[in-house]
Design brief:
three-stranded mixed beta sheet, 9 strands, 30% helix
């Protein structure tokens, strides 16, 4: 194992040991006692098999369009770029059970993943490029509250699949196209590791359009060269945020702040910068609700805070009072669905334009 791989692995271990407290607010009370051992570990997916992908541009004529059969008319008309790839990692959907990881042979879990995060989150990126979304042996939600050695090992099982899927994609399907990396929650945890292993240095650094990885606290010291996106047009950078109502802070974040931790990285997903102050109401392009209906624009304002949190106002829409909550983790993407879509298209076009070969008439 190379020295860089050892360093990256050490970073992942350190991240995980400090991470479990970060997501205690997400973990429901344990419905049953967890297994005292990681075994039996589910069989890993084979990524040459279409069934190992929830969506895969290379296998799009094998029935994987089933996920999009419930789309709305507002989404059906979006054309797809063919010169850009999107690699998306879904969040935790494994909430109940004694086992530490769930395998892709679990049909009920696959349906849940397809119906919720893949349909509601990865759909943001279907117009940006060719979509690749692997199934993986996701770890149980309790890893983020227990944080013990089995939790870490379960997270490593999950990441080993994500890494293998990404390597298979690179070897067989990328063909030098620029890459958008996207994920949420556990997907962002694994996405961060991909950034550290594959994009911090080497040829892939030049292929990164941007990484959209909300729902996970990330810190400057975790990256040696990858910058935070500071403008709406910047490429080769990271967009991340954690969404809460105004004034709300989860206990884990308060504890980290009291312990002297620096503020997490955070970008405003409406203005796409790091300035403080509320975003203009008219800049919000709309949200997508759990029934996959879009809301009207100008429904939400958000702002960054000095302690690395994205605060949002109560949605200004019919039923907005019923939707209001303190922790908007589940809405990290959906609240800003159309702003994220517009921005990834903008960054993609900027990446392609900046690398376009000059025409003969433009040469000196």
């Amino acid at each position: 194992m190379s020295s860089r791989c050892l360093v990256v692995k050490a970073i992942r271990i350190a991240l995980f040991l400090g991470l479990y407290a970060s997501f205690g607010q997400m973990a429901a009370p344990l419905a049953q006692e967890p297994s005292p051992t990681l075994e039996p570990v589910p069989t890993p997916p084979t990524y040459s098999d279409p069934s190992a992908w929830t969506v895969c541009a290379a296998f799009e004529h094998t029935g994987q369009d089933r996920i999009w059969t419930k789309k709305r008319k507002w989404h059906d008309q979006r054309a797809r770029r063919e010169d850009v790839d999107v690699f998306y990692i879904h969040p935790t959907m494994y909430m109940e059970g004694a086992a530490w990881n769930v395998g892709p042979e679990d049909a009920a879990m696959n349906e849940l993943v397809d119906e919720w995060p893949v349909r509601h989150q990865s759909s943001i990126f279907t117009s940006a490029g060719r979509l690749y979304a692997p199934r993986y042996r996701q770890a149980h939600i309790r890893i983020f509250s227990l944080g013990d050695s089995l939790s870490y090992l379960a997270a490593e099982v999950a990441y080993s699949d994500v890494k293998t899927a990404f390597e298979h994609y690179l070897a067989h399907w990328n063909q030098g196209r620029p890459i958008v990396l996207a994920g949420h929650s556990q997907g962002s945890y694994h996405g961060r590791a991909l950034l550290q292993e594959f994009f911090e240095e080497g040829p892939l650094a030049e292929l990164l359009v941007a990484a959209y990885l909300p729902g996970m606290d990330m810190y400057p010291e975790e990256f040696s060269s990858l910058p935070l996106c500071m403008t709406p047009d910047e490429t080769g950078c990271l967009c991340t945020w954690m969404t809460y109502s105004e004034g709300h802070r989860p206990d884990w974040l308060n504890a980290k702040r009291k312990a002297g931790h620096c503020a997490p990285l955070c970008v405003n997903p409406i203005t796409w910068d790091t300035t403080e102050g509320w975003s203009p109401l008219g800049s919000h392009l709309g949200s997508v609700l759990p029934n996959f209906r879009r809301t009207r624009p100008s429904a939400i304002q958000c702002k960054l805070t000095p302690d690395g949190v994205l605060e949002v106002t109560r949605p200004q829409m019919i039923g907005g009072r019923l939707l209001d909550r303190s922790d908007w983790h589940e809405g990290d993407f959906n609240l800003f669905w159309f702003n994220v879509e517009e921005n990834v298209l903008r960054r993609t076009q900027n990446w392609l334009s900046s690398r376009a070969k000059p025409q003969p008439s433009e040469l000196p």
